[in-house]
Write the structure tokens for this entry.
Amino acid sequence: MKINMQTVNFNADASLMEFLEQRVQKLSVFYDQIIDVDVYLKVENTSAKENKISEMKIHVPKDSVVVKKQCKSFEEAIDTACDAAERAIVKLKEKRKS
């Protein structure tokens, strides 16, 4: 599985990128045919506290899953996006079996 990471409106440190990579690698446990994952980390220029956005596009054969979450920190946004992606991938896998 290939992971493509992009940051928008900020520069991410190595620990955040390492956390992201470890968390996204766990998705392969739920579905082993994941081709690649595009991850976009964005900072929205608003006065709201929840301005960190994590958007994931997971490519699987003949389909893709898109998940977007907005939270107070990038770690929380990545975590909730991965949880949602896990549910979506399991749902897609169940759909393909039937």
